[in-house]
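Task: sequence in, structure out. Protein: UDPglucose 6-dehydrogenase.
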Amino acid sequence: ATAEQAAAGADAVLLLTEWRQYRDLDPVAFGRIVAQKRILDGRNALDRDAWTTAGWTHRALGRRSD
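Result:
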């Protein structure tokens, strides 16, 4: 399954890898397929500003949440 197929209708997304195919996801487009824009970045792989600007609640393991 693709990331989009796996996340369709999800209330939260867990990112547990730093693979490029996931790091390069478009947060705006990805936000259209989930039920709630919540993501836990377990590898600190995502651009936090891009995701929060796109309306996501972004949390990363080992990072302070502002």
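The mean pLDDT is 95.
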